[in-house]
Every structure is written in structure tokens, then in C-alpha cells.
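Quick review question:
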């Protein structure tokens, strides 16, 4: 139900489908026959493996084989025709069904508006079965178009000599940034683990579990050993959960960015986190199937490490209703950093979760100092519910930004957060009652202080919505939509500093040559938190702004922009490892351009190139120190003289 489940489902399904197609019982080939300048007849021959059959049109909704246009400018005309008549056959799955056996040819008329590429990628949708096996296949078929032209494309890969960093280059590159950000992600994971510890699902488990270890152990030394093994097992479980992402990351280096900025996945996360928040409010409990917990618990009776390891798994499962939302937030937040960022975050989370169990097993007398479980745990859970609700709208905002829907402009987003913050204040002050709350219950001093802080935060958000007061919300840079994505502005391509060019590298090169200024490439993203921090906190520094405006041609390339390229600009790129990738959107183009030339897939990334497109300094990433960033800019500009 969290990010990891959603990702596994999406990628697992893709893996299964691709493997099914590689060993598919149905093969297809196709060609396009010219009718006139813009009209073709697609003809496909489908070969069906023995003992398998392909479904024809059936009353219960099963469709016959059909074409799916691979281009938005392609329209299907009429209905497809088939070379043979379907036969009625007894079918395990659908009793009596109309099917094709052996082979069938299909014809479909299409019309293409505007530019015609030299080849068209289409998909044949086929439903096939054998006994109780059923496959819904999407078979890609490419057809040559006689009237088409080769697409212009874009020279993604620059000459290797141009991207080689000079020996005396400015800046320390992105390695230090990676190291420091790794520790930052670990710390965030650790913080998430600490928060998980004080939830009703985990906190009561500490004394129960530690008491179990100490009472079962024959000696103090054995109790300490068991506690250490238990803590190590918890840590290992969460680290191992990130291992599949390393395998996934080897498919395409920018896959994590693609996943984290996918609008539909972000909408799914929005729904999931709304679901989590409602659960945290106390309306219902989220639990994994009891069978899973029972199986893990039954294994925990094994001796030595095996039993202790399964005890740790049991803890992870039974505490999922509280740790799931926190862990999901961590995974989504660190996803853009790639597989290692996920591992670092999971390691921090697991370490924080394991630490008290280990320490209390070594020093069981400390258990006496633990606060007793009580209503304060329910308060913690409901405070987390408000936080989860606020985070849910961040996911919806990500989808809105990359698709440019205009649903959550900056003021709308901040207004929603203000309402949530004031709602939290009302809850903490006892004015808003949630499930399991008692009317007239005495409000503790801590809750009163929390209510004052939440109310003050809500007021700051409301005041900060006004454009002239945006400086009040600088500490939130990256979470709300950027300042230019506003109800008060018409232009959607401006940010903290006006770029000379947006999403057009070739135009930037042209301006660079005309003005003899180096190019400052800003690899950014609509859903990139650190990019907004740079734009709103560093680029707005007067000296930094003057340096960029006077001495550089700034081009902002959005790697998560889902807007499609014109048909005549789309192409298939073959990378240096021989892998092919369809470049269909603006984001596809610039994500590939960044990965192939600069071996980086995270944003922001700043690269300085000469007018002849040669790298002048070490590319740098997120640099929150304005003076450090200014020094890098000045040194890089001097290399062009």
C-alpha cells in the first residue's frame, strides 16, 4: 500500500508482460499499404501456437484482435476486418467462445494528419488462452510508411572531448554533494524511524519484546546477544527492502526520476496518503492480511538467529499500519536520489527502529524510565494524520505541475495547507473532536503549546500567500508550487530568475555564439524540491542574479516535462550500451541528454559550456550557500575568456 508496493506492482507487471511477450504463443508481423497521401491500410498476419487460441469478438466483452494507434495524429477508420471466420469452441474460462486457431489476418484503415514519420509504431491488442491460462497481449509492430519522412531528431550525445572536465576546472563537482546528501537522507530516515517509535503500533512493543528476550535468556550475556541480533535483524529487513531498486535502476539510469514524477503514480500516492490519513484519524485501521503475520509469527519460535529474524519480520508486519505511511513518505521523498538514496533512507529508518530494542535488551533496567502507554500515543497518531494529509496534496501538486493542469496554483496549495494547520490547532486545543476523543477531556500543556504553534503556522501561510510576502515562506521552498505558478501571473515558464531560454538547448547555443557568453545549463524539474530552493533562495541573491544575467546564457531544461515533442522531433535513441529509448516528450529528451553527457540523473544539476559546447568547469548540484555558488559561477565565466 505504500510506495514500494505501488512500484513493485507497476514494474513487476511490466516485467511479467515483457517476459510473456518474449515467449509469446502469438506472433505478428505487419505492413502498411498506401491508399492515398494520408491514408493507409494496415495489414497484420497473426500466427497462433498450437493448443492456443485467440479470442474473436464475444458477447461477454472479449474483443477480437485490434490495432492501437501508436501516435496521437493517427485515426482508425471504421472497424477491422478478418481473413477467416471465427469458430465456436468450448473454452475452460468462458465456456463457449468465438475463437481463431492457427492463423488470422487483420486489416485496418488509418489516416494520418500532419507530419508522417518514415515508420509507425503500432500495437496489436490480442487476448489468447490455453486451458485455464489467459494472456492479454500487447504486441508491438512497426510498419514502414511509404509517404513518410525521417524525423529531425536531436543530437543527444555530445562529442566525448566536449564533456571531458578540464584538469584545472572550477568547483568540486557533485561527489561531495552526493556524500553529504546521502547522510542527509540517512538522517531523514532516522528521524522517520524515531517518529515511528512513538506510534501506538510500535511503542508498546518495546517493553513486551525486551521482556521476552530477558526472560527467555538463561544468562545476561545471552539476553544481550539476542537483543543485538533482534536489532540487527530489524535493520537488515529494511535495508534489504531497497535491494530490488538497485536492480531496477540498472534498466535505465533515469527510471527513478521518471517514476517519481509520473503524474498518475503521484495521483495514486495522493489517494493512498489520503487513505492513510483517514486511518490515522481513527476512522479505521490498516492491517496487512492476518495470515502473513501468523506465518511470520509461527517461524519466530525457531531457535537462534532464524527465530529472532522472523520475530523482527513479525514486528515489521504488525506495525505496518503506523510505519507504512511514514516509510511511504520516506521512499517517495528519496526516490529522485536513486537506489542508493533509498538504501540510505531505509538504513536510517531501520537503525532508528532497531536502536531502542537493542539498548533496552542490553540495559533492561532502563525500561522503568519509559513513559506508560496511554492517550498521548493516540494524540501522536492523529497529529501524524494531519501531516499525512498535507503530504498527500504535495503528490497531487507534483502531478499538476508536470502536466500543467493549473489545479493547485501556489495560493490554492498554501491555502489548503493553512486549513490543515488550523485544523490541527483546533484538534490540539480540544475544539475539534476526532474518533475516540472524549468531550471535555483535559488538554495538556504540551497540546496547548502545539495548538499555538500550529495556529501561528497557519496564519504565516495565509499572509505568505500574498505575492509581496513570499519571503515569509522561503523556509518552505520546494514544497509549495514555485512562485511563478501563481494565480497572479500569466506566464508558466518563469522562476526565481528569468531564463534566456526554456527547454531549447539549440536556441541557447545560438545565443551563446552570438553574444560570446558561456551557457549555464540548469537541469531542473517541475517536481524538484531542491531546484525550487535554489531558485527562490540562491538565485534571488542580488550578486548571483547579476552574475547570471550579465555573464551567462541561462537555459532551463525540465527533465520531468510530460509535454509531447512535435511528431517530427520524436525519435528512438540508442545509448552507448546499445539500449534503445523512445524520445517522445520534452522530459525524455533532457533526461537522456543529462544522463548520456554528464553521467548524472539527479536535479538540480548546473553545467557551464562554452559557445562551442565544451564543458568549462565541474558540474555542481544543489548548493544552498549563495557565496559558494557565486564563486563557482565567476570562476566558470572566467574560463570562457
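Suggested answer, residue by residue:
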Amino acid at each position: 500500500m505504500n510506495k514500494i508496493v505501488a512500484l513493485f506492482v507497476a514494474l513487476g507487471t511490466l516485467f511479467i508482460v515483457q517476459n510473456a511477450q518474449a515467449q509469446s504463443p502469438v506472433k505478428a508481423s505487419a505492413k502498411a499499404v498506401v491508399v492515398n497521401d494520408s491514408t493507409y491500410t494496415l495489414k497484420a498476419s497473426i500466427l497462433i501456437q498450437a493448443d492456443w487460441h485467440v479470442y474473436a469478438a464475444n458477447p461477454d466483452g472479449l474483443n477480437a484482435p485490434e490495432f492501437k494507434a501508436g501516435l496521437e495524429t493517427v485515426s482508425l477508420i471504421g472497424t477491422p476486418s478478418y481473413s477467416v471466420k471465427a469458430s465456436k469452441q468450448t473454452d475452460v474460462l468462458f465456456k463457449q467462445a468465438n475463437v481463431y486457431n492457427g492463423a488470422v489476418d487483420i486489416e485496418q484503415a488509418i489516416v494520418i494528419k500532419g507530419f508522417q514519420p518514415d515508420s509507425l509504431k503500432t500495437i496489436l491488442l490480442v487476448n489468447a488462452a490455453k486451458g485455464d491460462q489467459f494472456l492479454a497481449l500487447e504486441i508491438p509492430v512497426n510498419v514502414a510508411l511509404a509517404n513518410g519522412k525521417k524525423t529531425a531528431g536531436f543530437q543527444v550525445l555530445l562529442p566525448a572531448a566536449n564533456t571531458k572536465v578540464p584538469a584545472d576546472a572550477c568547483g568540486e563537482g557533485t561527489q561531495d554533494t552526493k556524500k553529504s546528501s546521502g547522510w542527509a537522507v540517512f538522517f531523514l530516515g532516522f528521524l522517520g524511524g524515531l517518529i515511528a517509535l512513538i506510534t501506538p503500533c510500535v511503542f508498546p512493543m518495546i517493553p513486551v519484546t525486551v521482556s521476552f528476550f530477558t526472560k527467555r535468556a538463561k544468562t545476561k550475556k545471552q539476553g544481550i546477544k539476542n537483543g543485538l541480533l533482534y536489532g540487527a535483524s530489524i535493520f537488515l529487513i529494511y535495508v534489504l527492502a531497497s535491494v530490488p531498486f538497485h536492480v531496477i535502476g540498472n534498466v535505465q539510469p533515469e527510471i527513478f526520476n521518471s517514476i517519481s514524477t509520473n503524474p498518475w503514480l503521484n495521483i495514486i500516492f495522493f489517494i493512498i496518503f489520503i487513505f492513510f490519513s483517514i486511518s490515522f484519524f481513527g476512522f479505521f485501521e490498516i492491517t496487512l492480511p492476518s495470515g502473513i503475520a501468523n506465518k511470520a509469527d509461527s517461524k519466530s519460535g525457531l531457535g537462534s538467529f532464524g527465530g529472532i529474524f522472523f520475530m523482527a519480520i513479525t514486528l515489521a508486519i504488525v506495525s505496518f499500519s503506523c510505519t507504512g505511511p511514514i516509510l511511504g513518505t520516506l521512499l517517495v521523498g528519496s526516490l529522485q536520489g536513486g537506489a542508493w538514496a533509498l538504501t540510505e533512507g531505509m538504513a536510517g529508518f531501520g537503525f532508528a527502529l532497531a536502536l531502542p530494542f537493542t539498548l533496552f535488551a542490553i540495559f533492561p533496567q532502563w525500561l522503568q524510565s519509559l513513559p506508560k502507554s496511554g492517550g498521548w500515543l493516540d494524540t501522536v497518531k492523529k497529529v501524524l494524520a494531519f501531516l499525512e494529509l498535507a503530504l498527500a496534496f504535495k503528490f497531487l501538486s507534483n502531478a499538476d505541475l508536470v502536466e500543467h493542469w493549473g489545479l493547485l496554483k501556489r495560493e490554492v496549495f498554501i491555502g489548503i495547507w493553512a486549513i490543515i494547520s488550523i485544523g490541527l490547532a483546533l484538534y490540539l486545543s480540544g475544539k475539534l473532536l476526532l474518533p475516540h476523543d472524549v468531550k471535555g477531556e483535559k488538554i495538556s500543556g504540551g497540546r496547548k503549546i502545539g495548538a499555538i504553534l500550529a495556529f501561528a503556522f497557519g496564519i504565516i501561510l495565509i499572509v505568505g500567500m500574498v505575492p509581496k510576502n513570499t519571503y515569509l515562506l522561503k523556509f518552505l521552498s520546494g514544497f509549495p508550487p514555485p512562485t511563478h505558478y501563481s494565480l497572479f501571473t500569466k506566464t508558466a515558464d518563469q522562476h526565481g530568475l528569468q531564463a534566456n531560454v526554456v527547454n531549447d538547448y539549440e536556441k541557447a547555443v545560438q545565443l551563446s555564439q552570438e553574444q560570446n557568453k558561456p551557457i549555464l545549463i540548469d537541469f531542473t524539474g517541475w517536481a524538484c524540491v531542491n531546484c525550487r530552493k535554489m531558485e527562490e533562495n540562491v538565485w534571488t541573491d542580488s550578486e548571483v542574479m547579476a552574475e547570471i544575467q550579465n555573464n551567462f546564457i541561462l537555459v532551463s531544461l525540465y527533465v520531468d516535462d510530460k509535454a509531447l515533442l512535435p511528431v517530427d522531433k520524436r525519435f528512438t535513441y540508442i545509448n552507448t550500451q546499445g539500449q534503445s529509448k523512445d524520445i517522445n516528450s520534452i522530459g525524455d529528451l533532457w533526461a537522456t541528454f543529462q544522463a548520456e553527457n554528464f553521467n548524472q540523473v539527479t536535479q538540480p544539476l548546473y553545467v557551464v559550456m562554452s559557445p562551442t559546447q565544451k564543458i568549462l568547469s565541474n558540474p555542481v548540484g544543489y548548493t544552498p550557500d549563495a557565496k559558494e555558488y557565486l564563486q563557482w559561477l565567476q570562476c566558470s565565466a572566467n574560463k570562457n575568456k
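Why it works: The radius of gyration is 29 Å. The chain is about 45% helix and 15% strand.
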